[in-house]
Please model this.
Amino acid sequence: MSHQDSRKFLTLLTSRVAAVAIMVAACCAAMVGYATTTFTVNVFADGQAIPVKTSSRNPDAIVAQTGITVGEDDLVDASSFHVGSDAEDGNAIIVYRAVPVTFYEKGKKLVSVKAAGTVADAVEKAGIDMEGADTTDLDPDTLLKKNMKINVLRSYKIQLVVGGVKRSVDYAAGTVSDVLKRANIKLGEYDVVKPGLSKTLKPGSKVVVKRVSYETREVEKVIKYSTQTKQSGVLAEGTKRVARQGRDGSKTVTYEDKVVNGKVVSSKKVGEVVHVKAVDKVVVVGTRGAAKVVSNIQGSGAPTSYIKTFHGPATAYTAKAGAKTASGAVARRGLVAVNPKQIPYGSKLYIVADDGTVYGYCTAADTGGFVTNGSGTLVDLYMDSYGECTQWGKRNVTIYVISWGNGRV
Model:
């Protein structure tokens, strides 16, 4: 190496050494600066709070600064201690004093220990094996007190049926809600739980969760047309003529299904939309030439001629003043309720009971409830009072049709 090269190498080496020295000096200065940073900590012990100004990172050393003596079984809780934070921000160290506590199992003494902190700390100090869902009768976070009695509760199996699927779960204490939480079972809005969520259990108990939901479905349906029969004096008796052909309609019916564990257990209709209305078929039956002459009809004032007779049960009804019949006429004596498909509104009638009681001349003007209730009644006679209706009761009568109506009164 030449003399000139030697000088260049020496210069480069000198500059690098100087740079390293500067970096080391800077790091040392930073460490000294950090080490000398102070902060405040509240040390809680024996019912008092002692503020400490410190730069120490060691909780035990900070407690020692207060002059507090920590026993062998005492516990220094540094879970709220943070280097660099201040007491006003919650920086704290807690000293728990050890106290005697006793554990029991099934009413028998298990072990006595001197422990500090919480029930969980005492369990650990006592070396009690806790398996599965084993627990104590006190919450693990409960602070220990002198001569505290703690019962160890061993777990057992609970049968859990969720949505029809069976499984077993470890259980020691709590409620049905706790069991479901332990098994990570989340309930839906309509799910059913038996027994109730607040119930406690015992060995051999079973918890059943029924998965319940409500689903809607739409069904397309046909609306069947009906057939109406009308009478006409224009057509000869026995003649029938179709005045209008019937036509089926269509509709969409919406149902709500109750689904339990994946199966539909009930359905109810919740809506209906008619797309096409059904058109009833109309058949006209002729009555011309049907009149017959009959003499000696029982009862005073009976007609001497009539078109047709009907025989069957008759009941009686009444209504409030001003009430209207199905034909629009005001209800009154002399207007009777019939099946308008059998006897059209406006038909003139004469009615007499089999026992000789005469209702007399009247007009078909109302629709009887018997048309839909299937009672077999032939006619419902209007009476002026409830008492008259009661007195009439139900009797067989003969109805003489004097003339057919045209559907109007």
In short: The chain has five domains: 39-96, 99-153, 156-210, 214-285, 291-403. The chain is about 15% helix and 45% strand.
